[in-house]
Write the structure tokens for this entry.
Amino acid sequence: MRDIHNNLLITEVLAAAAPGISDEPTAEVDVQGYDSLEFVVSSVADAAGTVKLQESDTSGSGYADCAADDVLGTQGVALDNGEAVKLGYVGSKRYVIALISVTTDGVVSSIAIQGHAHIATVN
């Protein structure tokens, strides 16, 4: 068995929140120093909507939808109550967010998982 525990950086990018019916962006993830990124978004307490990834070269601004070829999974994937979805990023921009479009009021949360660090070990 190979070690994955010491080779992943897991960051909470959206604490469990009830944003209402709105677009809820996660905190941005800086991919510098890593070669892989996966967002996991979960829905609890009746939330439903869609999830897509956005990217930018500049921290905090200029976000645009990722091209389909830069996303592992389906851009705009449906998120239903009690479900978790994942979207991976393989693009070339430095900053990435997940944009959760909540269509049924409830609670959503998200983590980002980064791997293949240029300098191991990640703790």
Summary: The two ends are 19 Å apart (CA to CA).
